[in-house]
Amino acid sequence: MDVFRDQVEPILRQRCYECHSHALKIKGGLVLDSRSGWQKGGDSGPVIFPGALEKSLLIEAVRYTKHDLAMPPKAKLPASEIAILEQWVAMGAPDPRESVVALTKKGIDVEAGRKHWAYQPVRAATPPLVHDKAWPLNEIDTFILAKLEAAGLKPNAEADAYTWLRRVTFDLTGLPPTEAEITEFIADHSPQAHEHAVDRLLSSKAYGERWARHWLDLVGYAEQIGTEGKIFAEHAWRYRDYLVESFHNDKPFDRFIREQIAGDLLPAATPQERRANLIATGFIVLGDVDINAIDKLKMEYDFVDAQVSKVGTAFLGMTLGCVRCHDHKFDAIGQQDYYALAGMFRSTKTTFKTQHGIWSNVNRVPLPELPEDRAAAVEHEKSLAGWQQERKTFEAESKALADKTDADSKKRGEELKAKITALDLRIAHGEYFHPGKPQALAVADVAEPADMRLTIRGNPYALGDTMPRGLVRVAMWGPQPKIPAGQSGRLELADWISDAKNPLTARVAVNRIWQKLFGEGIVRSVDYFGTRGEKPSHPELLDYLAHRFMQEGWSQKKLIRLLALSRTYRLSSEASKPNGENRTSDDPENRLLSRMNRQRLDAESIRDAMLAASGHLVAPAGGPGLPLEFPNNISGLPIAPKSGHPQFSIKTERASENFERTLYLPVVRTGTQPGSARLRDVFDFPQPAQITSKRNETTVPTQSLYLLNADLIRQRAADLANDLLGSSGSDTSRIDKLWLRVLNRPVTEEEEADAFAFLKDAEITTSATAAWTELARALFGTSEFLLRY
To answer: At residue 222, does pLDDT exceed 90?
Structure first.
């Protein structure tokens, strides 16, 4: 056994790299993803002295012997892991790791860097031979089974029908199956039963909504611009709705890429297509940008850096942000590559300076007008004219009363003053949010695109050589493209990323989809395919899927259908063998996929599932999340010189927000999420300023307290109880319905007896409605409801 590779490195990767690795963070100056890292140490010097446990700060930290030196900070390591680290240090801390990237005196050795597996061309892998030829349902299963057989392992049995249907419905739509859908699937005894269910889910609008939310995690989406002040991004919702339609209609992923990076530069056959192309470029501008920054040059460079990093992460699995200041420490990516891309985005108009004060704002682009826009504009103009006429009437009456001193005239004068003030706000609001002037947060090339100069340590005031715009060399297969005069180069970038020859794009895309369905990616470092990232557990399968994905027209629905109909996806998540032994001892991290990984439902699915169970989930409408249609939610209108931006403060909410899918609720960057969306803050909703491929799944006391005490949970439980009590039938049938709606399976005899006993005891001191409410609330708080098995 290789002690370091088999035992020590997995602990460091899982427990330490989050804060002490070049690819993620370098806290305290310490990195642990290389041998030289722990030898050099951090701010406190070397952390390991081979053979000397008591001198090694790493051992002292994991033992928690000192309060100010306790690592990891969240919780002490299990005793077994501490023992492994102690044994490793005691035996001399053997560490075979070396820098993978070959560096020459002249800088990055691109040719050597291309030898890394991720930069090799995608191969059309052939499914391997397996002994148990009856087990695979499709090609995916042969790749999985071959690895299991080679390791002497057997896959789990299949999950039962109810568990599979709940799993696939949540994974594909973010919603639970309905009673009718459960009944239909259980009654379908045909060999195509699973296919019927998957095809139905993929054709639903809910599928588009679910997978749009996954993509928004990669964008840094919010309806608020920056974190300084509450400046609304009133057109951000158009990008969200664009994503829903794109996923629902199965837009080819290569087209999806080109629209988001260079949609404004693509030809369009219709006004609708032109609108979609422009809205798609919201990918570039939606993110955390400090538009209030006094140093506008630094703001500009920071925003460009965010755009380069986002494109690198989302589409290529590259960490490019660190290359702003220096060549990549491990990958064959130099500052030349970073500034080649950065020049494209600096040649793109993404912010503008307002006419009011020194403030900036995210770029707006007018959208082609559609017939419905004109109709809405006509009606809106009528309303504006009516308000303006009403104001003139009130103002004339007010002037007529100006010289009168009697009490009634004074009282009426005050009433008129208040009405005029309210109308001023309504008119200013109506002019600002005029529906006849549709816009999107989008981009355009600047008037004079140009190459960008390298910055010294990222400082925009300390400039080095000019770097020609171009592509990342290590992932190229030919010469740099020629960028036409007067263009930024984004179109060439989009063409390169979406090209089937690109070794990264398809691999990264299919790996993300795999991670959403199976809980972990084939490459577990889903955002980082570089030399310090995880190696694929099934490299041939990854290439098979990537190649097939491209061959089938970059269709995400076809890929998801293939995965969801595999036997691997049907496996039970049970961690025990039939004889009672713990299955996890054979493959602790389930890298070989002998079982399905359990996943906690995300915040959106928890809230939406409660709404669906209660029968109060409304059909999606789309449109703005922030309720900006209410003038009292806006401050700073009308805009005065030097006053900056109008801002939002939610005082009035839409009544429908309590019953809409969480996707359509407002997302803000500062403070708690508003209204009924607050549940997101409790269940690991990603910070909108960050790019998040795989959300955290924490288990903390505040979650239990929220489920016990939150008004949202009580109201949904009460709605469900009232719906059950309002239905015909016996309490037995009501309990059956309750279990089907919440846990999506039939109630067991033991559970039914417990439920009846609970209701009987509760109804002694309270009403039947209250008793059923508490029973429903108890089910909402169970692990079985919160987990997807």
So the answer is: yes
